[in-house]
TrEMBL record:
This is Dyp-type peroxidase. Its cofactor is heme b. Belongs to the DyP-type peroxidase family. InterPro entries: Dimeric_a/b-barrel (IPR011008), Dyp_perox_C (IPR048328), Dyp_perox_N (IPR048327), Dyp_peroxidase (IPR006314). Residues 15-140 form the Dyp-type peroxidase N-terminal domain. Residues 144-303 form the Dyp-type peroxidase C-terminal domain. One of its GO terms (molecular function) is peroxidase activity. It holds the Pfam family Dyp_perox_C. It comes from Streptomyces bullii. Keywords: Iron, Metal-binding, Oxidoreductase, Peroxidase. It comes from the Bacteria.
Length: 311
């Protein structure tokens, strides 16, 4: 297949790349009449990130911005990314994946919390009363890339060209080459119930060993439910960027889950298996200990697309 990044115009936002030590996630809705201000902020995002990050070259500050289905029409009109649509709520017999309000998504990454904070503060200041921030999460990497359930998270993520292949739109939607779909969910864990399980039982839920992170062959595990193959038998991949967050004093222990994908169908298939179950597997035993409290689908246009609006 042709390279997914053919020109400067389709240079992606920093969707690919290593996980950051710190992240901040903002989800906001746009107030009526706020569209011009939002367009301006999105168009000047790259310059703003440069301004905040340049004095701290080791800080690795970067930001990915996404736009929800309804907001796309309000901000950019037509054409639309071919597969952009609202997040579809999934209500299974035992598990619910709710759809929650969200027009804009900012995924801010850095090696230091102050840089994430400074960029978020400036974004919110510029957007001012034109948006309502619906969710704001400060997340961090935890020990050796573990989630708050104690398991290493992200091992099977594609890397290099495979990551671009999994996460970036290519020739199938030429006007949006270099873009990506971001499926976003905030999960809260029942850590008490999880910790009451023996380690061997936890390992059967995840499908990997806890200490050594080795793959286990456990039908019905989280890993198994999320191993999805296409019609040609090849594995369908997404680029996950899940980060822990929490407030121990409030009993809050969570995973902020972001899947970047070339098409939303792949993470949507995974979610259907996780939440509804079906002949191919699921529901996912991880959901007995993890509750989804938000759900959104955004399109992350290429950096070139955003800058063209600034021009
Ligand atoms: C509570 C939220 C979640 C937690 C704590 C979690 C945790 C994990 C862990 C520990 C692994 C094994 C290591 C790895 O390869 O990363 C894993 C694998 C994976 N997860 Fe999740 N996950 C969560 C939600 C999701 C969701 C919502 C999806 C899909 C939409 C998903 C898709 C996958 C995939 C594709 C794999 C790799 C499977 C393979 O081995 O090929 N996860 N996850």
């Amino acid at each position: 297949m042709a390279s997914p990044v053919p020109s400067d115009e389709s240079l992606p936002q920093p969707v690919l790349g290593q996980p950051s030590s710190i992240a901040m996630f903002l989800v906001a809705t746009i107030e009526p009449g706020g569209e011009p201000a939002v367009r301006e902020v999105l168009g000047s995002l790259a310059g703003l990130v440069r301004a905040v990050g340049f004095p701290s070259p080791d800080g690795g500050l970067c930001c990915v911005a996404g736009v929800g289905s309804g907001a796309w029409d309000r901000l950019f009109g037509h054409p639309r990314p071919a597969r952009l649509r609202p997040f579809r709520e999934l209500a299974g017999p035992r598990h619910l994946a709710p759809a929650t309000p969200g027009d804009l998504f900012f995924h801010i990454k850095a090696a230091r919390p102050d840089l994430c904070f400074a960029l978020a503060a400036e974004l919110v200041r510029r957007l001012d009363a034109r948006v309502t921030v619906r969710d704001e999460v400060q997340a961090f990497s935890y020990f050796d890339s573990r989630n708050l359930l104690g398991f290493v998270d992200g091992t099977e993520n594609p890397v290099g060209p495979a990551a671009a292949e999994a996460a970036l739109v290519g020739p199938e939607d030429p006007g949006f080459w270099g873009g990506s779909y971001a499926l976003v969910q905030k999960y809260l864990h029942d850590v008490e119930a999880w910790e009451a399980l023996a380690v061997e039982a936890q390992e059967k839920v995840i499908g990997r060993t806890k200490l050594t992170n080795l793959e286990l062959d456990v039908p019905g595990s989280h890993k198994d439910v999320n191993t999805v193959t296409g019609p040609d038998g090849t594995e369908q991949e997404i680029l996950r960027s899940a980060m822990p967050f929490g407030r121990p004093g409030h009993g809050e222990f969570g995973t902020y889950f972001v899947a970047y994908a070339r098409t939303p169908e792949v993470p949507e298939t995974m979610l259907r298996r996780m939440f509804l179950g079906g002949p191919d597997g699921g529901p996912d035993p991880l959901l007995d200990y993890s509750r989804a409290v938000t759900g959104n689908l955004f399109f992350v246009p290429s950096a070139g697309f955003l800058e063209s609006w600034a021009r």
